[in-house]
Amino acid sequence: MDESFDVIIIGAGTAGLAALREVRKRTERFVLVNDGPYGTTCARVGCMPSKLLVEAANAFYRRHAFETFGIRGSDGLSLDIPAVLRRVRSLRDGFVAGALKATDDLGERNIPGRARFLGPDTIEVGGRKLSAKRIVIATGSRPIVPGPWESLGERIMTTDTLFEQDDLPRRIGVIGMGAIGVEMAQALSRLGVEVTGFDAITRVAGLSDDTVNDALLELLREEFPIHMGAAAAVSAKADGVEIRSGETTVVVDRVLTALGRRPNLDGLGLDSFGVELDERGMPPLDTTTMQIGDLPVFLAGDANGHAAVLHEAADEGRIAGLNAVTEESRCFQRRTPLGIVFGDPGAAFVGRRFAELEAGEAVVGEVRFERQGRARAALRNKGVMRIYAASPSGRLLGAEMCAPSSEHMAHLLALAVDRQLTVADLLRMPFYHPVLEEGMRTALRDLARQLPRLSDSDLAACDAFEVEALD
């Protein structure tokens, strides 16, 4: 087999498969090198199995609303945790099988093994030296587990191992209240596990707006205790694992670490590139081209630590794949930032976060959902949304929220930010009644009151009725 290629792709996750899709359209002289399981992080241990667990937990938790709706007998419902976990794995395996099809027909061009760079155009894998005009690194990431904790063995879980359990223990400590921690802690609590959450910082779900953060934290604490602001230390005890954080000490059966994910770059030999690595061991990267410096190497997906979400990884893989088969790298405009945490209520950010706004640059519109009509009808009336707009133009800049149907309203706001729409532009949009989006309209009207007044002949200037059933 020829050991010289147009493109080598290292990694068969989301970014690697996206790069592969573009490369194989344009050349047959490529190989895919992959170390470890195939099937993408999202399908195997990330987005999909986690949402399967969340959906089961939310379905069972919904029984608490039945009496209010006039539905009797909810106290007779029970939960079969092993059956829940079997369904998670069964559907997960189907999603993984779909991802595996992308590499089924590669034959000799699919090389299992760990790659190590000998230079920017040459790698070694399994004793073979392979060279290429361009190389795409898409090696993904892995959960962070502090070294001393590894001695606890199976008592320390990550999302790589959580979904493989046949049953759940009675007590779980979740360390890390970012996106993964919030989703899994709430889901496990709703499945009947005694959950205790911990985080060294005082923010949850990646939020930067204090108003939204405090609202979500208060709602989460109604379901399970969370201890914030002090690092957690763990140690083995005869009856489980002891977690110490500040003045708090808790003993649990298992610990779920949700401290983020670390790029899989160690051992790749990036020091052979001749470029300076930062304190995290990362090379200089242009996120509009995915190119490392001026080298013929592209770094895409979770491996670059830029934005560990599927659509960003897919975009980066496509950018890297396209630039790997062209003489000159092309710059791509990246999508509007969008992040969603699938809790209840869901948390989300769109565009620029509150912490990224300059003083005096923006005005803020707010709505709380406790009295919002459609939310009350569905017994989902909790949470807050804050939308940011430039002053005095009214151009939408971003938003942060923890609100019912936030995953859908966040997409609408992402489109508005991407199209550089204004508050008035969105207020000219029809809002059907009764829908949760009317809550978003309330926040937009709050913004409009802080911006130059519109003409009375403009329907965007319509005021609220100040009647709950109508607004």
How many H/I helices? Answer: 13
CATH homologous superfamily heading of the largest domain:
FAD/NAD(P)-binding domain
CATH class category name of the largest domain: Alpha Beta
Tally of distinct domains? 3
Distance between the termini: 69 Å
The major beta sheet can be summarized as: 7 strands, mixed
Instruction: Report low-confidence residues grouped into runs of 5 or more.
Output: none
Query: Could you please say which CATH topology of the largest domain applies here?
Result: FAD/NAD(P)-binding domain
User: Roughly how much helix do the residues carry, as a percent range?
Assistant: 25-40%
At CATH's second level, what is the architecture of the largest domain? Answer: 3-Layer(bba) Sandwich
Structural class: alpha/beta
Q: What's the number of extended β-strand segments?
A: 24
Strand content: 15-25%
Topology:
Layout: E1 4-10, H1 14-26, E2 30-34, H2 41-44, H3 47-61, H4 66-69, H5 81-100, E3 110-112, E4 116-119, E5 122-125, E6 128-137, E7 141-143, E8 156-157, H6 159-162, E9 171-175, H7 179-190, E10 194-199, H8 210-221, E11 226-228, E12 232-237, E13 240-245, E14 248-252, E15 254-257, E16 261-263, E17 285-286, E18 291-292, E19 297-299, H9 310-324, E20 338-341, E21 346-351, E22 362-368, H10 373-377, E23 384-390, E24 396-403, H11 406-418, H12 423-427, H13 437-448
Parallel strand pairs: 1-2, 1-6, 2-3, 6-19, 8-15, 9-10, 9-15, 10-11
Antiparallel strand pairs: 4-5, 5-6, 7-16, 12-13, 13-14, 17-18, 20-21, 21-24, 22-23, 23-24
Helix pairs in contact: 1-9, 3-5, 3-7
